[in-house]
Amino acid sequence: MKYRCLVFDHDDTTVNSTATIHHPCFERFLQDYFPERSCSLEEYFLKNFSPGFVPMCREEYGMDDETLALETEYWQEYVRDRIPEAYPGIREIMLQQKQNGGLIAVISHSYRHNILRDYAANGLPEPDLIFGWEMPPEQRKPAAWPLKEVLKRFDLSPEEVLMIDDLKPGYDMALSCGVPFAAVGWANDIEPIETFMRSNCSLYFKRVSELAAYLQEQGG
Q: What's the half-sphere exposure (Cβ side, CA atoms, 13 Å) at 177?
């Protein structure tokens, strides 16, 4: 097995959550606290791609630390009873990885408890390690720290790990650690995002089935 550990992003890589949960939540938050502003789904994807969610909130909407904390609380309440669906085929990839004796880690901007809930609700195998939004800002993606911890805790070399993510923060993190990166584009059809990923990433998969076929070719 080429990749002893598959490191998955969560939102829009494992589960379909931005279009169905996170963007509607953000729009509702803006309506309540910034009624003169709005954010389209495409803009939300683009700004999460680069510069990232927190810089977007600060730079585009002028949110300070207090408002960001309020938005986080608002988001946590909104997602409490809303469970996103895993993309068809993701479960089979994860089960195959575990059956082959491999590891699964998650590095995400969602909270650990929500990730565990989503995995259980979708019948996905429980990850061996999770780093989510509960980590301090300096230990969140795109910082190298969580991916370096995966390597350290499992005694892995970078080439034994594959980072699977749909956005630039995951790419930046993997690049800083020398870890192979698989860009995935099944969550949206936004041209600037796909162009960047295809131009900069050696691996790009538009469908879950394409990722599954690639991993099968690698012996996983």
A: 30
Q: Are 153 and 159 in contact (CB under 8 A)?
A: no
Please report the pLDDT score of residue 220 as a whole number.
62
Task: Give 105-148 pLDDT, tens digit per residue.
Answer: 999 999 999 999 999 999 999 999 999 999 999 999 999 999 99
Element (H, E) at 184: strand 181-184
The dihedral built from the CA positions of residue 190, 191, 192 and 193, taken in this order, carries a sign that is: positive
Looking at residue 140, the DSSP 8-state letter turns out to be S
Helix (H) or strand (E) holding 107: strand 103-107
Distance (Å, rounded) from C-alpha 112 to C-alpha 115? Answer: 5
User: Measured between alpha carbons, how far is 186 from 175 in angstroms, rounded to an integer?
Assistant: 21
Tell me the CATH number of domain 5-16+86-217, given options 3.30.565.10, 3.40.50.1000, 3.40.640.10, 3.40.50.720.
3.40.50.1000
| Tokens of residue 127, six digits | 């990850």
Taking the C-alpha atoms of residue 17 and residue 179, their distance in angstroms, rounded to an integer, is 26
Q: Name the 3-class secondary structure at 33.
A: helix
Note if the bond before 142 is cis, omega within 30 degrees.
yes
For 148-157, how does the pLDDT look when each residue is reduced to its tens digit (9 = 90+)? 999 999 999 9
pLDDT at 219 over 90: no
